[in-house]
Design a protein that fits this description.
The chain has 316 residues and is α+β, with helices and mostly antiparallel strands. It has three domains: 5-55, no CATH class; 73-195, no CATH class; 203-310, VSR Endonuclease (Endonuclease, Chain A). It is built from 13 helices and twelve strands. The strands form four sheets. It has a four-stranded mixed β-sheet, with helices on both faces. A three-stranded antiparallel β-sheet has the order 1-3-2. A three-stranded mixed β-sheet has the order 4-5-6. α5 packs across α6 (139-147) and α6 (139-147) packs across α8 (170-179). The protein is elongated. The model has no long low-confidence stretch (mean pLDDT 91).
Length: 316
Amino acid sequence: MNVPFSALCDQNGIFLRREALAVGFDDRAIANAVRTKLIHRVRHGAYVMWRHWEELSEKGRHLTRAAAILRTTKTKVALSHVTALACYDAPLWDLPLGDVHLTRLDRRIGRREAGVAQHCGVLPPEDVAKRNSQLVTCATRTALDLTTITDVEHALPAIDHLLHTGETDIDSLRKKAKAMVHAPGSLSTDLVLRLTDGRHESVGESRSGYMFWRGGLPKPQPQYKILDYRGEILARVDFAWPEYGVFLEFDGKEKYVKYRKEGESVVDAVLREKKREELICRITGWRCIRIAWADLYTPEVTVARIRAVLAGGPVH
């Protein structure tokens, strides 16, 4: 036998049992390769190299399982719901990735399988797209499907992302939502569409926007442009209440790690951000509130703090 398992892998790193049998492997050899951690069984009849599997993130493993299902399913399906979101590289904050979500295109109900959430619904041709050569629900349908299986706060980051990246737009979402008004679980869809905002650029900003609404705060302006004395854009702040002379910055890890300048340390990035804040305050006369990820888990305390600042109280 001259063909190694690795030579059988497709672009997703997957090979099927029938392909291994066709080049001379038998079930005993396959089982031994699984036992010795040479290969990993993704699902019945589908495998990847163990080293490849070990290097994958949780989302990567989810997408690999999805690709294996597409290769082994006997009916025509489209990846949907959370799985389709992963295909669009949308944030998956706190969304469960245990089951691969798919929707059958023949409108029939399939049998329940371990690790598969199979949905039955009407998918017109315009609701199906191709992503990396795989059939997935279009971004608009994916966003609306998400609102039927999770709550408002968990739906907003992904839908804000799809709007921000131009995968869909609010008019398309509202139009499609009218056609899905009787879909199971769609009671919160209208609220999600009223709160979603493509100007939010991160999960933290999306969750902050939800917290402001839930806490009854005045609605701030996201990604507010700060102009200098010549009318040129000096900076953008995450949220602003111009009428109150207050702006708010969400301090996520990405700000100080992912978006560091070349050769800049984390400390350098923090000091640069502090100087930026001081410059904005000096030019505008406004005050700055900073919140971090932990503040989102104590929304009542955080909202009370923001409300006090808006009322003229101290920032710290």
